[in-house]
TrEMBL record:
SUPFAM superfamilies: ALDH-like (SSF53720). InterPro entries: Ald_DH/histidinol_DH, Ald_DH_C, Ald_DH_N, Aldehyde_DH_dom. Gene3D superfamilies: Aldehyde Dehydrogenase, Chain A, domain 1, Aldehyde Dehydrogenase, Chain A, domain 2. The keyword Oxidoreductase applies. Residues 6-442 form the Aldehyde dehydrogenase domain. One of its GO terms (molecular function) is oxidoreductase activity, acting on the aldehyde or oxo group of donors, NAD or NADP as acceptor. Keywords: Oxidoreductase. This is Acyl-CoA reductase. The keyword Ligase does not apply. It comes from Lentzea fradiae. It holds the Pfam family Aldedh.
Length: 447
């Protein structure tokens, strides 16, 4: 049965997409496996050249990709343009690094023997990505997987398949048929892909979805990037730009970013000034002008449910400025919440919306304990003037990525990945290639 995607800006149905089921998934994975051998047999130089051609195709058709991203997510054009440029950069990055050498050991390691390590692709990788960054989250997964020599079968989110379906058209032209296959559908489609004959699964999404993937995957390779609920520790000597930067990062993509700042933790001595500065910055952020809507009715209901259950006081909220035909969309303002108990649902759960909570700690050490005292451990930031002190705090924070006096700044060159309930595995950087390869040691007896 086909599914109808809705424009989150208006709440109006916009397009019908197919929903694939078991036979469709079986055919997609079978075709990918037939193509995988030929793709893996190419030299790294040839795979690199084809990935560069795919990057050029995305860049040349960037306007169409931007339209697709805006239609599916409702995000402002400026956000979509920056994300498409980032996708092009990611493809070019992996086209380059795949020509390097990842071998951990080679040469004369055993008397009378020569040894080396071959990095071989896994085969067919099943990829399931969410709706918050439809193309970029797909590229994070498929670029290193393809560069490593795998074929990819990718299931996009039900509400946002547009840009990835366009990418599949370009991939068929420049990579070859069935090297990248997109299988649109609902959650059951994703479960069918995970349960199929793929050799590995890369999943980006919720904790519940990740646990389900892990249970279905068995002994196969699994890479999970799950929730964030990220802390930002703001010390009394934080620079003046701290508050505008945190609010901008919190409201980017309507706060629907796993690595976005969610929980601001201050000291008692700068609690009031921090709340006031964040409130002033939030007053200047407008949904409909500076950021887009929430993505779907389920996400809207989650946002409302957590805020309604919170015991916090709303210190400030921004405006919603939309056209009349957008008033049926999934719009919510940016919000600053203060005076929260440690067990408040707005603290313990990831809202995934444009909300900053503010809590007070007794000391920097207490602030670190509060930052670490949630199940998630994806990213964090710390803000202040003492570099040595900030670096010390960065070592104590339980997170796969820590920013100092900045937040939500990423590049293809540096790894990103979670700990605890935020998942396992690595996205970005040369390290992501190892998620989609396995080493084979070859040892030769010499005369």
């Amino acid at each position: 049965m086909p599914s109808t995607a809705t424009d989150p800006r208006t709440g109006v149905p916009r397009q019908v997409f197919p929903t694939l089921r078991e036979d469709d998934i079986h055919r997609a994975v079978h075709s990918a496996r037939l193509s995988a051998a030929g793709w893996a047999a190419l030299t790294t130089g040839e795979r690199s050249r084809r990935l560069l051609r795919l990057a050029a195709a995305v860049e040349d058709d960037a306007a169409a990709y931007v339209r697709s991203e805006c239609a599916g997510t409702g995000k402002p054009r400026s956000e979509a343009e920056g994300e498409i440029a980032n996708c092009v950069d990611l493809l070019r990055f992996y086209a380059g690094v795949v020509r390097g050498d990842l071998s951990p050991a080679s040469g004369h390691r055993i008397p009378g023997r020569e040894s080396w390590v071959r990095w071989e692709p896994l085969g067919v990788v099943g990829v399931v990505v969410p709706w918050n960054y439809p193309l970029m989250m797909a590229i994070w997964r498929l670029a290193p997987a393809l560069a490593a020599g795998n074929a990819v079968v990718l299931k996009p989110a039900e509400t946002t398949p547009d840009s990835v379906l366009l990418l599949a058209e370009h991939a068929a032209e420049v990579l070859g048929p069935d090297v990248l296959t997109v299988t649109p559908g609902d959650r059951e489609t994703g479960r069918l892909l995970v349960a199929s004959d793929v050799d590995a699964i890369a999943f980006t999404g919720s904790l519940q979805g990740g646990l389900d993937v892990h249970a279905r995957a068995g002994v196969r390779r699994v890479s999970l990037e799950l929730g964030g609920n990220c802390p930002a520790i703001v010390l009394p000597d934080a620079p003046a730009h701290t508050y505008e930067d945190l609010v901008a990062a919190c409201t980017y993509n309507a706060g629907q970013s796993c690595a976005a700042p969610a929980r601001v933790i201050t000291l008692a001595e700068n609690f009031d000034s921090t709340v006031s500065a964040l409130a002033e910055a939030m007053r200047g952020r407008r949904a409909g002008a500076d950021f887009g809507p929430l993505n779907n009715p389920d996400q809207l209901a989650r946002y409302d449910s957590i805020l309604n259950a919170s015991k916090a006081a709303i210190r400030e909220q921004g405006d919603v400025v939309v056209a009349p035909d957008e008033r049926g969309g999934y719009w919510r303002p940016g919000v600053v919440l203060a005076d929260l108990p440690d067990d408040d649902p707005a603290v313990t759960e990831e809202i995934f919306g444009p909300v900053l909570t503010v809590q007070a700690a007794d000391s920097p050490e207490h602030a670190v304990r509060m930052a670490n005292d949630v199940p998630q451990a994806l990213a964090a930031s710390v803000w202040g003037d003492s570099v040595s002190g900030l670096l010390g705090i960065s070592r104590e924070l339980q997170a796969g990525e820590v920013w100092v006096n900045c937040h939500l700044e990423q590049t293809a060159d540096l790894p990103h990945g979670g700990r605890k309930q935020s998942g396992s595995g690595t996205d970005l950087s040369v390290l992501a290639l190892t998620e989609y390869q396995r080493p084979k040691t070859v040892t030769v007896r010499i005369a």
